[in-house]
Amino acid sequence: MTHGTPLSRRQFALLSGAVLSGLSGAAQAQAFPARPITLLVGFAPGGITDALARMVAPLLSDELKQPVVIDNRAGASGSIATALLAAAPKDGYTLGVISNGHGHNKLLIKGIHYDPVADFSVVGGIAQNPMVVLVQPSSPYRTMADLIAAGQRNGGLHYGHGGTGTLPHLLPELIARQHKTQWVDVPYRGSAPALVDLMAGQVAFVMDLLQTSLPYVEGGKLRAIAVTSKARVSQLPNVPTLAEGVLPGVDAQGFYGILAPAGVPQDVLAKLQGALARAVRKPDFVDRLHAAGSTPITESPSEFMKFVAADGKRWTDLIVALGLQPA
After folding, report:
1. Residue 107: CB atoms within 10 Å
2. Superfamily for 35-128+254-322?
């Protein structure tokens, strides 16, 4: 029977250290999370982004057995919070909610230095919410084709939106370019004042999220003539989609997801991804989303990030074509 060469004291110490280090690293990953997690939200309390974050945070807490604490860092279309996220420690204890502007904010806001894809790890999607094209109840415009034709005839049909570079601004511009019509955008500080002016007849139409506009439609204060999702929505089953007429194949909705800084350890990221995937599939959460006209995003994290990148490119290309400049 043969024996190997005995280990020297130095070799034994090095080997023991490596084993202990590996066990310690495994224990740390196994213990994650060992303290509360911060969820950055780039918008003020009370808005849709904040509401969704507060809906999903308790579910994540249940899954991860640690508090998930909302930290609102409002401003610059969400980019203040996103910049903080990009610079946060890569340990999984700081996450951030993103929405539509994530992929193209850097073209419209000075001082953004992060890359919307490369500087982040994706945890996953939360939900999406379609927009509704709204007119006054007494408006002569019954369809999107009517709005397009009026712009072609008059060359000055005004529409309102809640801010330059937002989806309710860019989607009408995309339609106008494709159909060679003339619409004049009127920016407001948020969708609420735009809807007030729409009801007062100051603008011809507004695109707004279904979740915020549905009460006006149900109350008879506004009329919906189209939805921007690929399929019709259950709350407005008689309202056609843009895809049925003016933009075949289009699916342009408000979307929301959660990112972490790039470089989070893969085992930690996998725990976060699994927790979110289970959270957005919980029946109570899904029911609450459906009641607000939203649907959960259940695609894999990699599929969601591909979607975010493609969405960013679509609107980046349009922003460049329109010649919009950063503020």
Report:
1. 17
2. Bordetella uptake gene, domain 1 (3.40.190.150)
